[in-house]
Structures are given as structure tokens and as C-alpha cells.
Amino acid sequence: MVVLGDGAVGKTCSLIAFTSNSFPKEYVPTVFDNYTATTTYNGEQITLGIWDTAGREDYDRLRPLSYPQTDVFMVAFSVISPSSFANISEKWVPEIRHHMPKTPFVIAGLKTDLRD
Asked: Quick check: pTM over 0.85?
């Protein structure tokens, strides 16, 4: 799985929390990082390979290098950032469809704890 979305929407914090059961105390912008998590589905143990990508425009040309052989994308946005939600349809889905037109994606709203 490759995780996409604008910078600072909570992608890395969510992945760290999911894979290590801990929450980072400081924000550190990601360039590229990978995580693994083991889960059970229908009684079968599955290991997930998860690529955390940089949301900043500086990495627009490098990010697609992580796309080949991706089974699913997760497109993340922050529920407290309307622009990150708008960028799902303006940037992230077009980027996925351009590079990997048949690969499915899911959309995840993050930072729900900060919503009023």
C-alpha cells in the first residue's frame, strides 16, 4: 500500500500509531519511509508493506517511483484542512489514474481528534 496526501495531514503519525502503537511527539516531514504491519484477515495472517510518501510538491517527480506493483493506494486528508480534501480530486486521484489507472484507492480522513 502506498499512502498519499498533502503534507502535514497526519499520514506519518497515523502509520506510526498503526504499526508501533505509539504516537510521535514531534512533526518530522517525511521524504519516503516504509513500514510493515501484521494483521489477521479471515483467519489468515497478512503482512502489509506500507510506503509513506512526501506530500510536498518538491517530491512530485520522485513520488511515482514508489508506485509500481502497488496493490492499493490510501489517499489521506485532514478533516481540519479543506484544501487537503480538495486536493484529493485536484491532485491525488489524477496522479494515481495517470500512473496506475487500474489500481484501487481508499480515502482516509485524519486528525478527527482535532475537529470541533
From this structure: yes
